[in-house]
Design brief:
alpha/beta; nine-stranded mixed sheet; 9 strands; Rossmann fold
Length: 273
Protein backbone atom coordinates (compact mmCIF):
# COMPACT_ATOMS: atom_id res chain seq x y z
CA UNK A 1 0.00 0.00 0.00
CA UNK A 2 1.17 3.51 -0.75
CA UNK A 3 -0.59 5.11 2.21
CA UNK A 4 -1.94 4.19 5.60
CA UNK A 5 -3.86 5.67 8.48
CA UNK A 6 -1.62 6.74 11.37
CA UNK A 7 -2.80 3.69 13.33
CA UNK A 8 -0.97 1.38 10.90
CA UNK A 9 1.94 3.58 9.86
CA UNK A 10 5.10 2.12 8.42
CA UNK A 11 7.74 4.17 6.65
CA UNK A 12 8.53 3.08 3.10
CA UNK A 13 11.77 3.90 1.31
CA UNK A 14 12.05 5.83 -1.91
CA UNK A 15 13.02 4.17 -5.12
CA UNK A 16 16.49 4.77 -6.59
CA UNK A 17 17.67 6.15 -9.87
CA UNK A 18 17.44 9.44 -11.71
CA UNK A 19 14.23 10.23 -13.54
CA UNK A 20 14.29 10.63 -17.26
CA UNK A 21 13.43 13.96 -18.79
CA UNK A 22 9.77 14.15 -19.75
CA UNK A 23 9.22 13.94 -23.48
CA UNK A 24 6.41 15.79 -25.21
CA UNK A 25 4.29 13.40 -27.25
CA UNK A 26 2.69 14.53 -30.49
CA UNK A 27 -1.00 13.61 -30.70
CA UNK A 28 -2.61 13.17 -34.09
CA UNK A 29 -5.87 15.12 -34.33
CA UNK A 30 -8.96 13.15 -35.35
CA UNK A 31 -11.99 15.36 -36.16
CA UNK A 32 -14.26 12.40 -35.36
CA UNK A 33 -13.12 12.59 -31.74
CA UNK A 34 -14.79 16.00 -31.26
CA UNK A 35 -18.17 15.79 -29.51
CA UNK A 36 -20.51 18.70 -28.76
CA UNK A 37 -23.18 18.04 -26.14
CA UNK A 38 -26.48 19.54 -25.07
CA UNK A 39 -27.08 19.66 -21.34
CA UNK A 40 -29.90 17.14 -21.78
CA UNK A 41 -27.42 14.65 -23.23
CA UNK A 42 -25.06 14.65 -20.25
CA UNK A 43 -25.50 11.65 -17.97
CA UNK A 44 -24.26 11.44 -14.38
CA UNK A 45 -25.42 9.47 -11.36
CA UNK A 46 -27.84 11.28 -9.03
CA UNK A 47 -25.30 10.88 -6.20
CA UNK A 48 -23.56 13.93 -7.64
CA UNK A 49 -26.29 16.04 -6.00
CA UNK A 50 -26.00 14.52 -2.50
CA UNK A 51 -24.00 16.67 -0.07
CA UNK A 52 -21.45 15.08 2.24
CA UNK A 53 -22.08 16.19 5.83
CA UNK A 54 -19.35 17.09 8.33
CA UNK A 55 -21.87 17.75 11.09
CA UNK A 56 -20.45 21.24 11.76
CA UNK A 57 -21.21 24.81 10.72
CA UNK A 58 -18.87 24.22 7.79
CA UNK A 59 -21.80 22.48 6.09
CA UNK A 60 -23.72 25.77 6.00
CA UNK A 61 -20.77 27.47 4.34
CA UNK A 62 -19.85 24.78 1.83
CA UNK A 63 -23.08 24.65 -0.18
CA UNK A 64 -26.73 25.67 -0.31
CA UNK A 65 -27.47 21.96 0.19
CA UNK A 66 -25.65 22.06 3.54
CA UNK A 67 -22.52 20.01 3.00
CA UNK A 68 -19.55 19.35 0.75
CA UNK A 69 -20.77 18.53 -2.75
CA UNK A 70 -19.29 15.73 -4.89
CA UNK A 71 -17.16 16.52 -7.96
CA UNK A 72 -15.92 19.89 -6.68
CA UNK A 73 -12.43 21.31 -7.09
CA UNK A 74 -11.80 23.65 -4.15
CA UNK A 75 -8.80 25.73 -3.10
CA UNK A 76 -8.21 26.76 0.52
CA UNK A 77 -5.63 29.50 0.74
CA UNK A 78 -4.04 31.93 3.17
CA UNK A 79 -0.72 32.50 4.90
CA UNK A 80 1.09 30.14 7.30
CA UNK A 81 -0.32 29.59 10.76
CA UNK A 82 -3.98 30.14 9.90
CA UNK A 83 -4.87 26.48 10.40
CA UNK A 84 -5.47 25.38 6.80
CA UNK A 85 -4.22 21.82 7.33
CA UNK A 86 -6.03 21.57 10.67
CA UNK A 87 -9.41 22.62 9.24
CA UNK A 88 -9.01 20.30 6.25
CA UNK A 89 -7.99 17.29 8.37
CA UNK A 90 -10.91 18.01 10.70
CA UNK A 91 -13.29 17.91 7.73
CA UNK A 92 -11.78 14.65 6.45
CA UNK A 93 -11.93 12.97 9.87
CA UNK A 94 -15.59 13.94 10.29
CA UNK A 95 -16.47 12.77 6.78
CA UNK A 96 -14.63 9.48 7.33
CA UNK A 97 -16.73 8.93 10.45
CA UNK A 98 -19.86 9.03 8.26
CA UNK A 99 -18.44 6.32 6.01
CA UNK A 100 -16.96 8.50 3.27
CA UNK A 101 -13.76 7.34 1.61
CA UNK A 102 -11.19 10.10 2.19
CA UNK A 103 -7.48 10.66 1.60
CA UNK A 104 -5.01 13.29 2.81
CA UNK A 105 -1.99 13.82 0.52
CA UNK A 106 0.80 15.37 2.57
CA UNK A 107 3.46 17.09 0.50
CA UNK A 108 4.80 19.21 3.35
CA UNK A 109 4.52 17.21 6.59
CA UNK A 110 6.44 13.95 7.04
CA UNK A 111 5.45 10.93 9.12
CA UNK A 112 6.96 12.25 12.37
CA UNK A 113 5.31 15.64 12.03
CA UNK A 114 1.98 14.04 11.23
CA UNK A 115 2.32 11.61 14.15
CA UNK A 116 2.81 14.56 16.55
CA UNK A 117 -0.15 16.33 14.93
CA UNK A 118 -2.35 13.30 15.58
CA UNK A 119 -1.33 13.27 19.24
CA UNK A 120 -2.81 16.77 19.54
CA UNK A 121 -5.90 15.94 17.48
CA UNK A 122 -6.55 12.19 18.01
CA UNK A 123 -9.42 12.00 15.50
CA UNK A 124 -6.96 12.94 12.71
CA UNK A 125 -5.33 9.52 13.17
CA UNK A 126 -8.24 7.86 11.37
CA UNK A 127 -7.53 9.71 8.10
CA UNK A 128 -5.58 7.64 5.51
CA UNK A 129 -2.51 9.67 4.53
CA UNK A 130 -0.12 9.51 1.59
CA UNK A 131 3.29 11.02 2.41
CA UNK A 132 4.30 12.28 -1.00
CA UNK A 133 7.92 13.02 -0.13
CA UNK A 134 8.51 9.27 -0.14
CA UNK A 135 7.67 9.23 -3.85
CA UNK A 136 9.37 12.33 -5.25
CA UNK A 137 10.88 10.35 -8.15
CA UNK A 138 7.51 8.91 -9.16
CA UNK A 139 5.13 11.67 -8.06
CA UNK A 140 3.06 11.55 -11.27
CA UNK A 141 2.73 7.77 -11.38
CA UNK A 142 2.02 7.55 -7.64
CA UNK A 143 -0.73 10.17 -7.63
CA UNK A 144 -2.38 8.83 -10.78
CA UNK A 145 -2.39 5.30 -9.34
CA UNK A 146 -3.71 6.33 -5.92
CA UNK A 147 -6.45 8.64 -7.25
CA UNK A 148 -7.62 5.90 -9.60
CA UNK A 149 -8.53 3.75 -6.57
CA UNK A 150 -11.58 5.98 -6.03
CA UNK A 151 -12.25 8.45 -3.19
CA UNK A 152 -15.12 10.66 -2.13
CA UNK A 153 -12.76 13.41 -0.96
CA UNK A 154 -9.04 13.96 -1.52
CA UNK A 155 -7.18 16.82 0.18
CA UNK A 156 -3.76 17.92 -1.08
CA UNK A 157 -1.29 19.83 1.10
CA UNK A 158 -0.16 21.66 -0.88
CA UNK A 159 -0.50 22.60 -4.56
CA UNK A 160 2.89 24.33 -4.48
CA UNK A 161 4.71 21.24 -3.17
CA UNK A 162 3.15 18.93 -5.76
CA UNK A 163 3.97 21.35 -8.61
CA UNK A 164 7.57 21.73 -7.45
CA UNK A 165 8.04 17.95 -7.12
CA UNK A 166 6.63 17.44 -10.60
CA UNK A 167 8.87 20.13 -12.12
CA UNK A 168 12.01 18.77 -10.44
CA UNK A 169 11.30 15.13 -11.26
CA UNK A 170 10.23 15.50 -14.88
CA UNK A 171 12.33 18.61 -15.65
CA UNK A 172 9.43 20.54 -17.04
CA UNK A 173 7.84 23.98 -16.68
CA UNK A 174 5.46 25.18 -14.00
CA UNK A 175 2.77 25.63 -16.65
CA UNK A 176 3.11 22.00 -17.77
CA UNK A 177 3.03 20.79 -14.16
CA UNK A 178 -0.13 22.79 -13.43
CA UNK A 179 -1.79 21.45 -16.57
CA UNK A 180 -1.09 17.86 -15.51
CA UNK A 181 -2.34 18.60 -11.99
CA UNK A 182 -5.61 20.14 -13.20
CA UNK A 183 -6.23 17.51 -15.88
CA UNK A 184 -5.74 14.70 -13.36
CA UNK A 185 -8.29 16.16 -10.96
CA UNK A 186 -10.72 16.96 -13.78
CA UNK A 187 -10.62 13.35 -14.96
CA UNK A 188 -11.00 11.76 -11.53
CA UNK A 189 -13.81 14.02 -10.32
CA UNK A 190 -15.96 12.93 -13.29
CA UNK A 191 -16.03 9.40 -11.90
CA UNK A 192 -13.23 8.05 -14.09
CA UNK A 193 -11.72 5.83 -11.38
CA UNK A 194 -12.14 2.23 -10.25
CA UNK A 195 -15.03 2.93 -7.87
CA UNK A 196 -16.75 5.49 -10.15
CA UNK A 197 -16.51 8.08 -7.37
CA UNK A 198 -17.23 11.74 -8.15
CA UNK A 199 -14.19 12.84 -6.20
CA UNK A 200 -14.07 16.25 -4.55
CA UNK A 201 -10.60 17.78 -4.28
CA UNK A 202 -9.62 20.18 -1.50
CA UNK A 203 -6.34 21.83 -2.49
CA UNK A 204 -4.35 23.81 0.06
CA UNK A 205 -2.29 26.74 -1.22
CA UNK A 206 -0.21 29.47 0.40
CA UNK A 207 -0.35 33.19 -0.34
CA UNK A 208 2.62 35.48 -0.95
CA UNK A 209 4.00 37.91 1.65
CA UNK A 210 1.88 40.58 -0.02
CA UNK A 211 -1.21 38.46 0.57
CA UNK A 212 -1.69 37.46 -3.07
CA UNK A 213 -2.57 33.96 -4.24
CA UNK A 214 0.63 31.97 -4.85
CA UNK A 215 -0.28 30.46 -8.19
CA UNK A 216 -1.39 31.19 -11.71
CA UNK A 217 -4.76 32.57 -12.76
CA UNK A 218 -5.42 29.23 -14.43
CA UNK A 219 -5.43 27.50 -11.04
CA UNK A 220 -7.97 30.01 -9.71
CA UNK A 221 -10.21 29.93 -12.76
CA UNK A 222 -10.35 26.13 -12.97
CA UNK A 223 -11.78 25.72 -9.47
CA UNK A 224 -15.42 25.79 -8.37
CA UNK A 225 -14.65 27.29 -4.97
CA UNK A 226 -12.03 29.55 -3.42
CA UNK A 227 -11.98 29.45 0.38
CA UNK A 228 -10.00 31.84 2.61
CA UNK A 229 -8.89 31.58 6.23
CA UNK A 230 -7.76 34.67 8.09
CA UNK A 231 -6.85 35.72 11.61
CA UNK A 232 -9.13 38.02 13.59
CA UNK A 233 -7.29 40.88 15.28
CA UNK A 234 -6.91 40.57 19.06
CA UNK A 235 -8.65 37.18 19.10
CA UNK A 236 -7.73 33.51 19.13
CA UNK A 237 -10.50 32.91 16.60
CA UNK A 238 -10.11 32.94 12.83
CA UNK A 239 -12.56 33.48 10.00
CA UNK A 240 -13.52 31.25 7.06
CA UNK A 241 -15.20 32.68 4.00
CA UNK A 242 -15.46 32.11 0.24
CA UNK A 243 -14.57 34.60 -2.48
CA UNK A 244 -15.94 32.13 -5.06
CA UNK A 245 -18.36 29.25 -4.59
CA UNK A 246 -20.56 27.85 -7.36
CA UNK A 247 -22.53 25.79 -4.83
CA UNK A 248 -23.44 28.63 -2.46
CA UNK A 249 -23.55 32.41 -2.12
CA UNK A 250 -20.43 34.10 -0.76
CA UNK A 251 -22.10 36.46 1.72
CA UNK A 252 -21.73 34.10 4.67
CA UNK A 253 -18.70 33.45 6.87
CA UNK A 254 -18.02 31.55 10.08
CA UNK A 255 -15.34 31.68 12.74
CA UNK A 256 -13.32 28.83 14.19
CA UNK A 257 -10.93 28.27 17.04
CA UNK A 258 -8.33 25.53 17.31
CA UNK A 259 -8.58 24.06 20.80
CA UNK A 260 -6.39 21.52 22.57
CA UNK A 261 -7.88 18.52 20.75
CA UNK A 262 -10.64 19.83 18.52
CA UNK A 263 -11.70 22.56 16.10
CA UNK A 264 -14.61 24.68 17.31
CA UNK A 265 -16.84 26.50 14.80
CA UNK A 266 -19.01 29.51 15.57
CA UNK A 267 -21.55 31.48 13.58
CA UNK A 268 -22.21 34.39 15.96
CA UNK A 269 -19.00 36.30 15.17
CA UNK A 270 -19.11 35.61 11.44
CA UNK A 271 -19.21 39.23 10.29
CA UNK A 272 -16.94 40.62 12.95
CA UNK A 273 -13.88 42.46 11.65
Amino acid sequence: MLFRSMKNLTIEKRGKGRPKKAQAEAVAFDPKSVHIFKGSELKFNESIFRPMKTGTLMDELLSADKGLMPAVNMIICEGPGTGKSTVVLDMLARLAKTGKRVLFVSGEMDEIGHFKYCKRMPHFATVPTLFLKNYTETVRETMEYVFDQGYDVVAIDSIAEVIEMYKDTYRTTESAAELWFLNLQSTVKKGENKLKKYTTFINIQQVTKAGDFAGSNRLKHMTEAMCHLERIKDSDSRKIYFSKNRDNNIDMSITYRIGLNQVEYNLEQADEE
